[in-house]
Amino acid sequence: xxRTAENTKGRVRESSTKEANQKIDEALLHSLKAYLSANKxxxxxxxxALEKEWDIERVLxxxxxxxxxxxxxxxxxxxxxxxxxxxxxxxxxxxxGVQGWCPxxxxxRALGIRSRREIEEEKYALKLLRGDFxxxxxxxxxxxxxxLVRK
Length: 151
Hints:
By secondary structure, this protein is mainly alpha-helical.
């Protein structure tokens, strides 16, 4: 089976700027460094927090549906020109679904909102530190840990 860039890196990362990806990776490494010597309870708490973290897809969907609904309501009760808003927003959402990119994406990435894949990388790195995948040798640096998870 052919491996595509989408399979290896993810559409969101491929569609994001190098700077946004670096910022997110640096935050991930900083978090992993903080948990390298953490106890199992702290690791478990962080994993639970990661399971609740909103990924970029969820943020885009909630923002798009909120703006579209607002546009429909404003169009119905204030001025018909507001009906343009749901048309624009749903076009952006369609574009994201088809291409993996839409105009709000760079803004959200600059704010540090991660893809589900990036959240899962941190989660599995912490599970590795917690000992969930024994007898895998635990790397000594955050960089090695991230490299192992990304393989």
